[in-house]
Amino acid sequence: MDYERYEYLDITVADGVASVLNNDPLRDNAFTPAAHREWAYVYRDLAQDEDVRAIVLGGHGEHFSAGPDVEYLRALATDPAARARGFDETEQIVYAPLTFDKPVVSAISGSLVGGAATYALMADIIVADETATFVDKHVTAGLVPGDGGILTWMTYAGVLRAKRHLLTGDPLSAHEAERIGLITEVVPRGEALDAARGYAHRLAELPPATIRQTKRALNQGLRVLAPVLFDHSHALEALSMQTPEFRDWVAALPHDDPAEAVHPVGSP
Known about the structure:
The protein is an alpha/beta fold and 268 residues long. The protein has helices at 33-48, 70-78, 80-99, 115-121, 149-157, 159-168, 174-179, 192-204, 208-240, 244-251, 258-262; strands at residues 9-14, 17-22, 54-59, 104-108, 111-113, 125-129, 133-135, 172-173, 185-187.
């Protein structure tokens, strides 16, 4: 499989394990519309690659992803065609892992913000180091958290804890995320990627048919819930993107400060 066409994702394959890393560390791995598009079709390519038996998701640098950059947020607020493309891609980002037969392990460090959290939290095993912070500030930006946050947070952590963090946008530490069941485990600083690769190599050595069927059984509950929890919240997010609250929030984002433009306060 040729992964050279990927510009944002850095994809390498060795010993049956594909490493899929967000690759814009100077901007905290914030994602553009083009990067979001790559997330949408990467599972299709990985599924067709017979050399891949397990996948590791992560990021170069100190952060998994600072979430959408200002370019993407402005496109969502002002361009109906870009908004439609983005919503189609998000549907693929959420649903593709639910039918993907190969095991996926996430390695999280630093910031995991908003929509980027769905990409990481749809994995089968989620390893975070002690620097990881989980935050979803859709509501503070005037949006419904409809890009997978309702599905993952409610299913993993429960309704009350999902309400606590999705309604307020308050951040969650790695240890607290483990305590409430949002992630699998916490490892020392800088060790998330190695720990995730350790899991991936173990899983790559197991019988593929058994892994495939067990994943299907384990994901059945999520597949049943997705049309209720994701589809509904996704439709509501589409409506909220056309409100004055969201447009005003985007209009107030900084234009001149590169650091703030990558990771604006309250980024969904």
